[in-house]
Amino acid sequence: MTQEDGELDGLVRKRIRALRVAQGWSLEELATRANLSQSTLSRIENGRRRLALDQLVTLARALDTSLDQLVETASDDVVTSPVIDAAHGLMRWSIKADPGMSVVRQRMTGPPPDNPARMRAHPGREWLVVLSGTAVLMLGHRRIRIETNQAAEFPTMLPHAIGAEGGPCEILGIFDRDARRGHQRDRTADTAD
Question: For residue 87, with 0-12 CB atoms within 10 Å meaning exposed, 13-18 middle and 19 or more buried, which class applies?
């Protein structure tokens, strides 16, 4: 066994115990759910028993998680650098649990388009929070003012556009897979114009 294997072994044991404690379960309760003896579970958590794949699968199910999540390495848990799209003023982070989702930070200086033909609609959902300033969300025929620390969530099948009011604003948005694709197509179309 390499040192890296030993570190993973210890990490998995800590996760099993942490997930059990977070659920408020005793050793006996988790052992019953996983169809293991209490002493076996205790020895697994304390490193006095070898981790067997079949027991890990059973424990993952009992803890309402996946085997992948139980054994992923610590470095997999850390999000690193964002992708920066300077041309569009965006900073984007992928969400590890669902690579189709993105978190985007964007600074806006201009108002939303006043021409409804410039509003976009595409499948998906969006959530955003205003970090600073005031944003205006045009959603169909509605004009919604969103101030610092306020949030909005909406289906992107409605024609929509976002801009600043009274000076620059900064937003943080979360896009599901479909909304992200729709915005990527919109930016590509905008640069082709």
Answer: exposed
Which pair of structure tokens corresponds to residue 106? 């964007």
pLDDT-flagged residues of the chain (< 50): 1-3, 76-77, 79, 191-193
Q: Are 34 and 58 in contact (CB under 8 A)?
A: yes
Q: Helices in the chain by DSSP H: which ranges? A: 3-23, 27-34, 38-46, 53-62, 67-71, 177-192
Class of residue 60 by CB neighbours under 10 A (exposed 0-12, middle 13-18, buried 19+) = buried
Q: For 20, which DSSP code?
A: H
Tokens representing residue 22 in the block: 């977070």
Q: How far apart are CA 113 and CA 153, in angstroms?
A: 20
Measured CA to CA, the distance from residue 163 to residue 10 in angstroms comes to 49
The pTM of the full predicted model, rounded to 2 decimals, is 0.53
C-beta separation of 85 from 92 below 8 A = yes
Residue among 88, 79, 126 at smallest CA distance from 110: 88
